[in-house]
Design brief:
With 206 residues, this protein is of the alpha+beta class. Helices cover 31% and strands 33% of the residues. The protein is globular, with a radius of gyration of 19 Å.
């Protein structure tokens, strides 16, 4: 059964991030445990216990199974200044310089390819890497051909720390080109999105 906000509020930050990411992907606890080659009871312990002890190996397996990084699960990729005690002010959006936005994309991970369809704009989650001035993804051939036929597509990646209500978002826009990575009979092909424009914002407490 999906966890409610009140359930999550009583857990540690790591437990909240694991649960939130699992539910974002639509995975049951058993499904995630199988992906991570982990005992479901141990995963339940990690999600339910504040300050639960977790090994580096288990954290790495969870990050891979959730399509994210150890740093993201641990909350280390949300760059935030020290919080003043009792400061309840809402976080503020801060524009990112192009170099900083590029640095946030360099580790790769999970993002969203954004394109137009008959029913309107669509954002589809994809794994990606950044190579020089191109975002590289692998998608089904039909989608690859759709992207290549677009004049300009968008690509967005973000990291959100639900526990601290902070995070960042980076947007790439540019043309997409199809690369025949697996030959004509392959089900998935490589698509490269040229970084013509790179913008981003960070949401953090001042």
């Amino acid at each position: 059964m999906p966890s409610t906000h009140s359930d999550l509020s009583h857990r540690g930050d790591l437990a909240r991030r694991i649960t939130a990411r699992r539910e974002e992907l639509g995975l049951s606890r058993d499904e995630l445990a199988r992906r991570a080659s982990m005992d479901a009871a141990y995963l339940e312990y990690l999600e339910q216990r504040s300050g639960a002890a977790v090994t580096a190996t288990a954290l790495l397996r969870l990050a891979e199974a959730l399509g994210t990084t150890v740093e993201a699960l641990a909350g280390g990729d949300v760059e935030r200044p020290p919080r003043l005690g009792g400061d309840a002010r809402p976080p503020e959006p801060v524009p990112l310089a192009e170099g900083e936005a590029r640095r946030l994309l360099e580790p790769g991970g999970v993002g969203r390819i954004v394109f137009s369809s008959a029913r309107g704009p669509v954002a589809q989650p994809v794994n990606f890497v950044l190579e020089h001035d191109e975002v590289v993804i692998h998608v089904a051939r039909q989608l690859a051909e759709t992207l290549a036929s677009e004049g300009v597509v968008g690509f967005e990646a973000d990291r959100v720390d639900e526990a601290q209500h902070e995070g960042w978002s980076v947007l790439v826009t540019g043309p997409a080109r199809l690369v025949e990575a697996g030959g004509p009979g392959s089900g998935r092909v490589e698509v490269r999105v040229r970084v013509d424009e790179l913008t981003g914002r960070m949401l953090r407490h001042r």
